[in-house]
Amino acid sequence: MLAFLQVILIDITLAGDNAVVIGMVVRRLSPEQRRIAILIGVLCAAVIRLGLALVATRLLEIIGLTFAGGLLLLWVCWRMYRELRHTETEESEDNAPPKSLATAVFHIVLADLSMSLDNVLAVAGAAAEHTWVLVSGLAVSVILMATAASFIARLLGRWPWISWVGLLIVFGVAVELIIRGGNEISAHLPF
Hints:
The protein has seven helices and no strands. It is mostly helical. The protein has one domain (about 1-185). The chain is globular. Mean pLDDT is about 75; it is low at about 95.
């Protein structure tokens, strides 16, 4: 039970970053498309996290995986930055078309792929050898992410400047992953 409580605390702490990304990605979709994108994105996140969880102990042995995830997330940040700049231009002209559903789902899956590794490894470490705790923890994480993403998307629709704060948060996570991954790589260099 203690392992399960640790997993829940980890989920609450780490699900926020993913929720910010999802909220930013779906903010320009219609409410119906937003629900569909979040549902598909969260289902994909669940599959990604379950797959990562099944190989979590082996993932810990791969040097450079955290660094690669950080680079991937940095690319996601660049795409979001370009979209935010483009959106501001369009909104100033009062003809901002909604982002496509397929593009939103792609960005959600890509961001979740790069950001889920920390969550899965933390949950796997806390769950130890209790498979039910691992699976339950990942399920809670996905539910928290979906709930928070809907709320964040509504906030971003009302106050678009929050998107820039979200972008800074995601950028910070990318930099953290790159630094941590770089340290792992440098620690294993032969010289």
